[in-house]
Specification:
The protein has 643 residues and is an alpha/beta fold. The chain folds into 3 domains: 11-177, Up-down Bundle (Growth Hormone, Chain: A); 211-411, Growth Hormone, Chain: A, CATH 1.20.1250.20; 416-494 and 544-638, 3-Layer(aba) Sandwich (Rossmann fold), CATH 3.40.50.300. It contains 29 helices and 10 strands. A hairpin with a 6-residue loop joins strand 1 (416-423) and strand 2. The radius of gyration is 30 Å and the shape is elongated. The two termini are 34 Å apart. Residues 413-642 form the ABC transporter domain. One of its GO terms (biological process) is L-amino acid transport. Belongs to the ABC transporter superfamily.
Length: 643
């Protein structure tokens, strides 16, 4: 065996979890101090609330744009930059209090805050279950602590919360970069979908460069996400509404019924949030199934009524704790049902859509509560808000329950393993390239040095260092002819052939393979390639380059190599021949052949390949799973980074 490969060590999900707390810390601090901020900024408290809710609305409306940008810009970097700037804008509003500065900061923070709704939670992964939501709840608890500590100086609260949230957002840069593909995994790491052949095949068929589920196709998967999340959207909305009305209504009652002023109402909320975080973390196992969601929503629905009927101020924190903990575990259980079974490429869209539903429902619920307060007393208005939350619990009874998931089978060993390979010289040299190709898998290599890599793997070019292992055998120093005995075939185009016709060549290949009726085998293969069938009796050496490549694939169908190296794919072919070629490649893959393609035509390659390696200056610049043609072009011609 050659030397082992050294894939990049992925960062832990802690960075994503920390980033999940940034948004709630920012929004919670502003919303809890609206009245106090009004006096500092110079505008009514209601106007401060409207401005803050406008920022939240803009963040939700910006989710589709975030999903489109995530295909071109590294998602961790976008979260760190946009989220960090949004947080610093909030801090700036505290440093320079004033109507214009505050309103502008809230609007711009909302425009930039979209990634905080989408990317940290989707990066944490569905198997994190409750932890992204516990982190968000911890951010809200921290906002309450900051608001309680800075009630008399709310501008200072904005500065503290803004700087802290900026730090949390910037930490997101430590999240491993992934590409929107079925695996959604970082380079050097295989996801559960990739380890599960059934799920991996489904992802490749559905996500051929774009998110493609249920028959539709869109760059961000927005329509697909809505179709997948629609059964759970009422429950997500109810969880957001339960938190909003319980907190807003409870603080209102503490102020006007129990005459608590200053920092005392927010301090009760701050201390109530601490046990809510603990309860949500301990109750995490409940989030591994969607079955408890209706009962958790019913528990959340009791919180507004509990706050409305509290006999004393000390009883209000119980309502806060119930609402926060129940809503948190509810959202985590919904993630298990909705995000869990989804392909990895669809999870950012699902995360954005479901987070937007919760945030918008919470914002709308506070407005409804204010309207009800004008026609009924505060306690009755708060109790009435529990009705739609309880109704959402009934809709949650119909949530899809994912079937039991078996432990993923261990990945099969690679049929081809290239480790630290360096070969050739000049602009086409390769340096320290490592890759793996498994049976039934197709991998494309783009960029200067791709053909050099194939020549070194085939044995035509001795490597300067590194190793090539085929089927568990180190063939680094094995001559090309002996590599063919291991099932390796290198297709380089027309080459030099003798005077045999196309039919004779295929018949001889079938005979050498031991076929009982070589003529019939050759005729059957020619039926697959109409452009070759029309020239069946012409000398193979007279074929042009595109048809010579088709002939090479025809030979591969007869000989059945274990590993096929294709130097270029489909250049100069018409649409029909290109489709035939792609179908042939899929047939070879279905029969277990491993394919390594160098510099193929991008659209045809992406229709059949599982993964793509892009070389720059002879080194691997990116390894992508199911990329779009735009991503590959961007990396090849503009030196970009994968999204």
């Amino acid at each position: 065996m050659g030397p082992p490969t050294h894939p990049r060590r992925p960062a832990t999900p802690h960075a994503a979890l920390l980033a999940c707390a940034a948004g709630p810390l920012l929004a919670g601090t502003v919303l809890l101090l609206t009245d106090a901020l009004g006096g500092v900024v110079g505008m009514p408290g209601e106007a401060v609330s409207y401005t803050a809710f406008t920022g939240l609305l803009l963040a939700c409306l910006g989710v589709p744009l975030v999903l489109r940008l995530a295909r071109r810009v590294p998602a961790p970097g976008m979260t760190a930059v946009a989220g960090g700037l949004a947080a610093l804008l909030v801090a700036a509003a505290g440093l320079v209090p004033g109507v214009a500065v505050f309103a502008s900061a809230m609007v711009l923070a909302g425009v930039l805050g979209g990634p905080l709704l989408v990317l940290p939670r989707s990066a944490a992964g569905p198997r994190a279950y409750v932890w992204p939501h516990v982190a968000a709840l911890a951010g809200l608890a921290a906002a309450a602590q900051v608001a309680a500590a800075f009630t008399d100086t709310p501008d200072g609260a904005l500065v503290v919360a803004g700087v802290a949230a900026a730090v949390l957002a910037v930490v997101a840069v430590r999240v491993p970069r992934t590409t929107p593909g079925p695996g959604g995994s970082a380079p050097g790491r295989r996801s559960p979908e990739e380890n599960d052949p059934a799920r991996s095949d489904r992802g490749r068929a559905d996500l051929n460069g774009r998110v493609r589920v249920g028959g539709s196709s869109s760059p961000s998967g927005w329509r697909d996400a809505f179709a997948a999340a629609r059964p759970a959207l009422p429950a997500y909305a109810a969880s957001g509404a339960a938190v909003a009305v319980t907190v807003q209504g409870g603080l209102h009652l503490l102020l006007f019924r129990w005459n608590m002023v200053g920092s005392d109402p927010i301090a009760l909320l701050a201390w109530a949030a601490v046990p809510a975080v603990v309860i949500a973390a301990v109750a995490g196992p409940l989030a591994r199934s969607a079955r408890p969601v209706p009962w958790l929503l019913l528990a959340a629905a009791t919180a507004p009524a509990l706050a409305a009927t509290a006999p004393a101020p000390w009883a209000l924190p119980a309502a806060f704790t119930v609402a926060l903990a129940a809503a948190t575990v509810t959202a985590a259980g919904l993630d298990t049902a909705i995000l869990g079974p989804a392909p990895a490429a669809l999870r950012p869209a699902l995360a954005g859509l479901t987070a937007g539903a919760a945030v918008l429902a919470g914002s709308a619920a506070t407005g409804v509560l204010a309207l009800l307060g004008r026609v009924a007393d505060d306690a009755s208005a708060l109790t009435l808000t529990a009705v739609p939350i309880a109704a959402a619990a009934l809709t949650a009874l119909r949530l899809p329950e994912p079937g039991p998931t078996a432990e993923p089978a261990p990945a099969s060993p690679p049929l081809l393993e290239v480790s630290g390979l360096s070969a050739g010289g000049g602009p086409a040299a390769v340096r320290d390239v490592s890759l793996q190709v498994r049976a039934g898998e197709a991998v494309a290599v783009f960029g200067p040095g791709a053909r050099t890599l194939l020549s070194a793997v085939a044995g035509h070019l001795p490597p300067d260092r590194g190793a090539v292992v085929v089927g568990g055998t180190d063939v680094t120093a094995v001559p090309p002819g002996l590599r063919a005995d291991l099932g390796l075939s290198h297709l380089v185009g027309a080459g030099t052939r003798d005077g045999r016709s196309v039919t004779e060549l295929l018949r001889d290949r079938a005979a050498a393979r031991g076929r009982a009726d070589p003529g019939t085998a050759a005729a059957a293969v020619l039926e697959v390639f109409p452009s070759l069938r029309d020239r069946a009796h012409e000398p193979a050496a007279d074929l042009d380059e595109p048809r010579a490549r088709l002939l090479g694939l025809a030979e591969a169908l007869i000989t059945g190599p274990r590993l096929l190296l294709v130097d270029g794919l489909s250049p100069g072919l018409d649409r029909v021949s290109a489709d035939v070629l792609a179908a042939t490649v899929r047939r070879l893959l279905a029969e277990g052949t491993a394919l390594l393609l160098a510099e193929p035509v991008i659209p045809v390659a992406l229709s059949v390949c599982d993964r793509v390696h892009v070389l720059r200056r002879g080194r691997t610049a990116a390894e992508l799973t199911a990329p779009t043609p735009e991503q590959v072009h961007h990396l090849l011609h503009r030196g970009g980074r994968p999204a």
